[in-house]
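Hi there,

I know you've been waiting on this one. I reran it after we fixed the sequence typo, so this is the corrected version. Both the input and the resulting structure follow.
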Amino acid sequence: MPHETLHLIEPTKSQTDAALAELKHALRMPPPPVPHESLALLYDAACHDTGGSQAARNFLFWLAGRPDPTGFVGDGGLELRRLDRQLKDASFEVLNWWAGPTRSDAPLYNILGKLRVRFAPETERT
């Protein structure tokens, strides 16, 4: 198989300056507000025992890199396909919030704590 040569084009000074100005502007912007309604919707869904609930729970724990307390191991982004439109939209809103700097991570971690207690094996609850 022949080797392909990749030619990189250096950005011009004006392109570099524009990119830096955009980055500086973004860094000065306040973090987005917490999507409380979307987090609540996902939490409510995650509390049940359906395929969509399992996918919502998996998504919330995935955000924080934590295992689902039920032991379920999902299939990454494919789990989003199991969500209805409303839960999908909520997931993307939460993901957009979580992907950047936040004022506090507590809203997500509070929900994860409630879910962990709710779904902990009986032996861990006593």
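Quick highlight: The helical segments are 13-28, 36-46, 51-63, 85-99, 106-119, 122-125.

Best,
R. S.
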